[in-house]
Backbone:
């Protein structure tokens, strides 16, 4: 018998790679989306599509009846009510996995550990908010909904990725830095270049979702991130290495950045305090991560084939040039 998976969301980034991973591991897959985006699996006979809105209970119930999935991977649950409803409708599946986030953690532990590091609180107002400011709060509340469902007998689990990168990354956060390395020989990084914001290669996240669905312990959350975390400076050097080019990374503190009218937070993927997730629990299930050099090589290759340049994150090259000029005089 071939296992059947329902992926709620499955055409864009994490969901797209999750569908591909499930196919590689013998599943038949159905995606549930609103049909607003081009389906990359339209010609794949082992992938079916159900059109519907995941916030509509009847659409979820219709998907349940038509697919009768063994596992459900929920990639687009952005409010705790979404998780409550899904764990009720899919209460009898072999595995329901909620895609949470490392942003759900409320304390700056290094590293952040499942079951030890506290989660963000979530007020009733935050639970229905749409802004980025409450993202972590809402994801944490979704985790708690998973734990409650598990106590009621649902085989529900959670996966918490840190910053996700890789092919088809619509956020373009890493694309900004790739573009900088490919187009300039000197690149400004904020601070001392040693800031650490843990990242997760998207194919590893997809594999984690499947493994947790198959082997995860109900009521448990699993962190996922690269097994070797890179500082921002190391990230740019790795991009240059795999792209077969050279780059000079120029760290710039707040005073130097101010010359260009910039602040450290104007640069994407900058975080003053380290954000690092412990991934041992996931590794204990048999999950392995892709070597960061290989993950970056695939990311750079995809960047070159795409039209993404990360320009929405660009603090302004002219401003950076002023910073570089000041750094040259020091």
Residues:
């Amino acid at each position: 018998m071939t296992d059947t998976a329902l992926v709620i969301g499955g055409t864009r980034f994490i969901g797209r790679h999750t569908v591909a991973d499930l196919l590689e591991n013998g599943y038949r897959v159905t995606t549930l989306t609103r049909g607003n985006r081009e389906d990359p699996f339209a010609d794949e006979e082992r992938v079916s599509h159900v059109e519907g809105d995941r916030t509509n209970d009847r659409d979820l119930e219709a998907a349940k009846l038509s697919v009768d999935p063994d596992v459900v991977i929920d990639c687009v649950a952005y409010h705790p009510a979404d998780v409550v409803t899904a764990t009720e409708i899919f209460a009898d599946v072999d595995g329901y996995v909620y895609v949470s986030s490392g942003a759900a953690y409320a304390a700056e532990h290094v590293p952040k550990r499942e079951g030890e590091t506290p989660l963000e609180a979530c007020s009733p107002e935050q639970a229905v908010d749409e802004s980025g400011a409450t993202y972590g709060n809402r994801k944490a509340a979704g985790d708690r909904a998973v734990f409650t469902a598990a106590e009621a007998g649902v085989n529900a689990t959670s996966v918490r990725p840190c910053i996700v990168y890789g092919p088809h990354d619509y956020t373009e956060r890493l694309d900004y830095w790739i573009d900088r390395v490919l187009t300039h020989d000197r690149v400004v990084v904020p601070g001392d270049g040693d800031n650490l914001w843990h990242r997760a290669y998207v194919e590893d996240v997809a594999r984690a979702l499947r493994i947790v669905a198959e082997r995860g312990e109900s009521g448990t959350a699993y962190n996922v991130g690269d097994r070797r975390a890179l500082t921002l400076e190391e990230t740019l050097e790795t991009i240059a290495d795999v792209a077969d080019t050279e780059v000079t990374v120029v760290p710039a503190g707040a005073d130097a950045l101010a010359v260009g009218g910039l602040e450290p937070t104007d640069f994407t993927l900058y975080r003053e305090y380290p954000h690092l997730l412990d991934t041992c629990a996931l590794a204990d299930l048999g999950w392995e991560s892709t070597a960061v050099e290989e993950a970056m090589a695939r990311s750079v290759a995809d960047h070159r084939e795409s039209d993404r340049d990360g320009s929405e994150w660009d603090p302004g090259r002219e401003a950076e040039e002023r910073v570089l000029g000041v750094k040259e005089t020091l």
